[in-house]
From TrEMBL:
Keywords: ATP-binding, Cell membrane, Ion transport, Iron, Iron transport, Membrane, Nucleotide-binding, Transport. Pfam families: ABC_tran, TOBE_2. GO terms for molecular function: ATP binding. The keyword Transit peptide does not apply. InterPro entries: AAA+_ATPase (IPR003593), ABC_SmlMolc_Importer (IPR050093), ABC_transporter-like_ATP-bd (IPR003439), ABC_transporter-like_CS (IPR017871), ABC_transpr_FbpC (IPR015853), P-loop_NTPase (IPR027417), Transp-assoc_OB_typ2 (IPR013611). It comes from Rhodoferax potami. CDD domains: ABC_Carb_Solutes_like. It comes from the Bacteria. This is ABC transporter ATP-binding protein. Residues 4-236 form the ABC transporter domain.
């Protein structure tokens, strides 16, 4: 069963088409991440779902209720949708208690009990209720903003890059805590982000936007390992895209002969490997000959130490086409620039659909 359905949503700003016929279905209780570069249209789409803007054409349906049909829309305050903006947008002159309870009836006898419940839900100490937003950390402020959005028991929660202002460690822990909270509450959620890793780790469904259209929608593992085109592949992470000759479920490429699992494609095509599928080992013996399995020789030409992982660029030898490939190696024992290495691949290569 779906919570949200978008049918042919279009939006233009003057001569600029921001959204071009968006079709999207969001299952009930799921977490969907809309990810894309700046200018791809993801924020425009979120604002139309929230009711802050009207589409030029298309329909927005929430649990069977039509919220927008072209320019005819249900106002944002009547949609039953929670919204957490990037900066939290807390009222600086109000206490945490008044921020959390802002949308609650002040005369309701259970108002304080509801505020206490919401603080517990977002794992904040009730002792913070009398503080002002500037007395909280960034992560605490985002949790207060989430509690305020949850106060009205929304049918749908919209998160507009809510973790982007947090430092790396706090960002990851806050994202995980929020995901667990929303899942436990059974609230359907849409996250808009430009961070690919954030989208893949947070969501059950990832929607990749490009130039106002959805390039691909699917489960995180599906869109990461089996993207529809090289552009989508490169946006979701580092990609090793190679030309190959395809035949009977195998690909002959610069790295040798690799399994693809696609027995239908024959002839020239392109394949994808992720850098973590490649291994490098010191080359201390005779270089492997071209075509001797999925192993070939090369030279490390660039090394970017990132702690646990070292990102290497390896120039394959001329008999393997001189191709430059990117490899993720363990940081502690990564080869140095100039080192001669043997490059091998593991797992299955993804074959891009024919264009």
């Amino acid at each position: 069963m779906t919570t949200l359905e978008l049918h042919g949503v279009h939006k233009s700003y003057g001569a600029v088409a921001a959204l071009k016929g968006i079709q999207l279905s969001v299952p009930r209780g799921s977490r969907t991440a809309i990810v894309g570069p700046s200018g791809s249209g993801k924020t425009s789409l979120l604002r139309i779902i929230a009711g802050f803007e009207a589409p030029d054409a298309g329909r927005v349906v929430l649990q069977g209720e039509v919220l927008a049909d072209g320019s005819a829309i249900v106002p944002a305050h009547r949609r039953g949708i929670g919204y957490v903006p990037q900066d939290g947008a807390l009222f600086p002159h109000l206490s945490v208690a008044d921020n959390v309870g802002f949308g609650l009836d002040k005369s309701a006898p259970d108002r304080q009990a509801r505020i206490d419940e919401l603080m517990d839900m977002v794992s904040l100490d009730r002792a913070m209720l009398q503080r002002r937003p500037h007395e909280l950390s960034g992560g605490q402020q985002q949790r207060v903003a989430l509690a305020r959005a949850l106060a009205q028991r929304p049918k749908l929660m919209l998160l507009d890059e809510p973790f982007s202002a947090l430092d790396t460690g706090l960002r990851a822990s806050t994202r995980k805590a929020v995901a667990q909270l929303l899942q436990a509450a059974g609230i359907t959620t849409i996250l808009v982000t430009h961070d690919q890793a954030e989208a893949l780790s947070f969501a059950d469904q990832v929607a990749v936007m490009r130039a106002g259209q959805l390039a691909q929608v699917g489960a995180p593992l599906e869109v990461y390992l089996r993207p529809k085109d090289p552009v989508t592949a490169s946006f979701l992470g580092e990609a090793v895209v190679l030309n190959a000759r395809l035949s009977q479920g195998w690909a002959e490429c610069a790295l040798g002969r690799l399994p693809t699992g696609d027995t239908l494609r024959h002839g020239q095509g392109q394949i994808l490997l992720r850098p973590e599928q490649l291994n490098v080992t010191p080359l201390i013996s005779t270089p492997p000959s071209a075509g001797s399995g999925a192993v070939c020789a090369g030279t490390v030409v660039e090394s970017d130490f990132c702690g646990a992982v070292c990102e290497l660029s390896v120039q394959l030898d001329e008999d393997a086409g001189g191709t430059l490939v990117h490899v993720h190696s363990a940081g502690l024992d990564a080869p140095l620039v100039g080192a001669r290495v043997a490059v091998s691949a593991r797992g299955t290569a993804h074959v891009f659909p024919a264009s």
